[in-house]
Amino acid sequence: MTATTPIVVGVDGSDSALHAVRWAAGEAELRAAPLRLVHVCTVVPPGYVDASGPTDALVDRCRQWLWQATEAARTT
């Protein structure tokens, strides 16, 4: 892994995800590598026909999870 290869960690709002973020932040610092936090949101459940897109509440929740993860990484 080179210094330009980011360390990627998934965020889903769980305590275990925040634990993984803290671990990944420490590894990124040790390796002088960028840290990338990601979240994937399923906006249309399987078999659901109306694909009108994500709701504002769903997008807000995802942003909140990423903000919490960012804060956890910064304080590590």
Report what the structure shows.
This protein has 76 residues and is mostly helical. Helix content is 47%, strand content 11%. It has helices spanning 15-31, 56-74; strands at residues 7-10, 35-38. It has a two-stranded parallel ribbon with strand order 1-2. Helix 1 (15-31) packs across helix 2.
Mean pLDDT: 85
Instruction: Find the structural class using helix and strand composition.
Output: mainly alpha
Percent range of helical residues: 40-55%
How would you describe the shape? elongated
Care to count the β-strands? 2
Cα end-to-end separation: 22 Å
**Biggest sheet overview:** 2 strands, parallel
Strand content of the residues, in percent? Answer: 5-15%
Strand arrangement in the largest pleated sheet: 1-2
List the helices and strands and how they pair.
Layout: E1 7-10, H1 15-31, E2 35-38, H2 56-74
Parallel strand pairs: 1-2
Provide the descriptors you would attach to this structure in a database record.
single chain, 76 residues, mainly alpha, two-stranded parallel sheet, 47% helix, elongated
